[in-house]
Amino acid sequence: MSQEFSKIIHILKQKKIKNVGIFTHQNADPDAVASVVSLKYLIEHLVTNVSVKLYIKSSNTLSKNLFSFRKEQICEEFSNQDLDAFFLCDVNNLKQVGFSDLESKLEKNLPIFIIDHHSDHEFTNRARHSIILPITSTAEIMVNLFKELKVSIPADIATILIAGILFDTRRFIHLSKFTFSIVNYLIDTGGDYENALSMLQSPLSVSERIARLKAATRVRIYKDDPFIIASSYVSTFESSVARSLIELGANCSIVLANPNIDEYRISFRCTKSFAEKNNLNLGDISNNLALHLGGSGGGHQTAAGMNISKNKDFPEKKEKQLELIVDLFLKEIKK
User: Fold this and answer.
1) Are the C-beta atoms of 334 and 312 separated by less than 8 Å?
2) Closest CA to 142 of 112, 186, 173
3) Burial 190-210 (b: 16+ CB within 10 A, else e)
4) How far is CA 83 from each of CA 55, 192, 220, 307, rounded to the nearest angstrom?
5) What is the three-class DSSP state of 83?
6) Which residue of 2, 89, 107, 314 lies most exposed, with the fewest beta carbons within 10 A?
7) DSSP H helices in 149-237
8) Phi, psi of 20 (to 5 degrees)
9) Contacts of 247 (CB under 8 A, 6+ apart)
10) How far apart are CA 251 and CA 229, in angstroms?
11) Rg (CA), the chain
């Protein structure tokens, strides 16, 4: 893994790269934030006279806690005027980054690098080099890079890396055999476990609570003995709503959001037992559905997302849109 990253650093030095952009998925979660912040530090440590900017379309409340802790600046708009190299971190699909027409703005010869823990996407083939490992968080990949390259991790970055791992493992519900040793290493380097935990404990905003309550009144239930699949729709906070339906008792949840007139976002969540019993990975299913509906998707075994742009083949009414998605989903899990 470090050999692959060393090749990336060699390219940055050889081509005298001056301006690097790091991108992650929209609605960035703590794992995404921890990963891009630590990647930025690592590049700046290994490459002299380089400017590294973080481009993030949007992030949730918990992620903003991490940015505030590190006091990192982020760019919410993208222009390719001064970019010499391009990193995707905790995402391997351009459409999930959220910047409109991003691909058309990229120069064809611009070096692209990917660091991620999700399933491969077709865009991965365009990357000059990629580090994609099927582990529980991208933050763990970043920690291993620091260790293998023998670069010390500052205490504040160690703390947000712990927060990223806690978030993506759901506080160690899902983990690899190395997760505990990695977190222990971060604590040994100065990471503050209690502080990391506190970053993940922000109260829900009024808007988010209202979204959850509205979604609960619109729920449709599908029984697939012994499992319950729940679907609903909201304007935004679809990820939070999908989690809340699992907390209410669903084994699987599908939530549609329509944040603006031309965009649809769908969040999928399920329990570990649902995924194992049906031998499925929600990340793979969301990608398959996205290909069918002309969008993009990806994620993990028990959590995934999908983006769809408005098109003539997608129904007008939300109820019909949701019915279509649920129907396609049920067909996928029966394969």
Assistant:
1) no
2) 186
3) ebbbeebeebbeeeeeeebee
4) 12, 35, 46, 26
5) coil
6) 107
7) 155-168, 179-188, 193-199, 206-217
8) -115, 135
9) none
10) 6
11) 20
At residue 132, what is the residue type?
I
Domains of the chain: 2-199 (3.90.1640.10), 208-333 (3.10.310.40)
More confident residue, 67 or 154: 154
| Rounded CA separation 241/254 (Å) | 9
Side-chain half-sphere exposure of 200, counting CA atoms within 13 A: 22
Report the range out of 129-143, 209-223, 287-301 with the highest average pLDDT: 209-223
Q: Give the N- to C-terminal CA distance of the chain in Å, as an integer.
A: 35
Q: What pTM value is reported for the model? A: 0.81
State how beta strands 252-260 and 227-234 pair: parallel
Write down the pLDDT at residue 105.
Answer: 63
Q: Is the pLDDT of residue 283 over 80?
A: yes
Spatial separation of the C-alpha atoms in residues 182 and 169, rounded to whole Å: 13
- pLDDT at site 240: 93
227-276 pLDDT, tens digit each: 999 999 999 999 999 999 999 999 999 999 998 878 899 999 999 999 99
Amino acid at 317: K
Those residues with Cβ within 8 angstroms of residue 23's Cβ, 6 or more apart along the chain or in another chain? 36, 55, 56, 86, 87, 88, 89, 91, 97, 99, 102
Two tokens, residue 166: 């806690």
| H or E element that contains 327 | helix 318-333
Cα angle: 4, vertex 7, 12; to 5 degrees? 135
In the block, tokens 């970053």 appear at 199
pLDDT digits (tens, 9 = 90+) for 162-214: 999 999 998 998 888 899 999 999 999 999 999 999 999 888 889 999 999 99
State the pairing for strand pair 295-299/263-270. Answer: unpaired
Q: Regarding predicted confidence, which is higher, 126 or 28? A: 28
